[in-house]
Amino acid sequence: MIKKQDKIDPMAQNITQSLRLIDTHTHFDVPEYDEARVQCARRASEQGVLHLVLIGYLARYFGRMVQTHEFVNALEAAPKSHLAFGLHPLYIHEHHENDLLILSDFLNNHHSIAIAEIGLDTYHKSLQSADIYAKQQRFFVEQIKLAKQYHKPILLHIRKSHADVLKILAEQNYRADNQGGIAHSFSGGEQEALAFVKRGFKLGITGQITNPNAKKLRRAAMAVFAKYGADAFVIETDCPDMMPLPCQHLGSFNEPANLPHVLDTLALLFSMDKQSLAEKLWQNSCQALQTKW
Ligand SMILES: [Zn+2]
C-alpha cells in the first residue's frame, strides 16, 4: 500500500498513468468473478484499463450483464463498463426465435455499444450439421440486420468459417469502415486476416499472441501489420478465457488486468514503443466501436 507521504518516482508514475487501454472483449459478468469482481476491477484500473466491454452470448444472461455493468460503474477504482448484447454462434442449440425479440428489447432499453458476439463457428462436430449451420447463418444475418437498424458495430466470433462470414458480410453489404466492427480473437490465416481488414474490421488480439507457439496467429498479424501497420488492431482479454502465457501460474481464469501482456507482445512483434502502440490501439478501438473516448 502506498501512503500519500511515500516518495514515488515521478517518471515511473507518469509512465503508468499515461498507458491507457481498452479491453474490447470481456465476459466480466460470469460467476467466476463473483467473489473477486471488486478486486479484479481495481487491478484492471491500476494497469491502465480504463474501459471494458461486456459481451453477450445467451439471452438469459443479458439481465446479469446489466447488473454487472451497473455494479462496475458504481465502483470508484474500476474501468468504465459498456454493454454489447448479442447471441453467440457457439450456443446456437440454445437460442430460440424469441431471443431475437429479447435482443431487440435490450437494444431498445439499454445503451448497447455494439452487437456481440455474433458470427459462425464450425469448430466442433455438433456445430457442423446442415440444419444447425443454417440456423447459425440465419441468426447471424438477423443480427447484422439489427446492427444496421440500430446503427451499431458488430463484433464477430469466427471459427473455421471465415469464408462464409465474409460471404454473408458482402451479401448484407456490411462494411466496418462505415459502421465499425472487430473480428474478435482472430484465428484465421494471413489471407483471411487481410480480407477482414480490407472490409474495415479491426483484428481483436488476445493473450494467445503471448505464446511463441501461436505461429499461425503471429504470421497473420505480421502480414496485416506489413500492409496496414498498427491501424488494423485492437486488443482484448476475452476473459475468463485466453490466459496470457506469462499469467498462467497466477490462477485458473483470465482477467482484464492481464491486458498489458497483449500490448507488450504486440509492441515487441511490431518493434514499436508501448506508449505509442497503446495510443494507436486506443484510437483503433474508438473507431471500431464508433465512439469518442
Ligand atoms: Zn467472447
UniProtKB/TrEMBL annotation:
Gene3D superfamilies found in the cross-reference section: Metal-dependent hydrolases
Keyword line: Hydrolase, Metal-binding
UniProt-annotated binding residues for a divalent metal cation 1: 25, 27, 117, 238
GO cellular component, one term: cytosol
InterPro entries documented for this protein: DNase_TatD-rel_CS, Metal_Hydrolase, TatD-like
Residues holding a divalent metal cation 2: 157, 184
Keyword Hydrolase: yes
GO MF: hydrolase activity, acting on ester bonds; metal ion binding
Keyword Metal-binding: yes
Family recorded in the similarity comment: Belongs to the metallo-dependent hydrolases superfamily. TatD-type hydrolase family.
Protein's name according to its UniProt entry: TatD DNase family protein
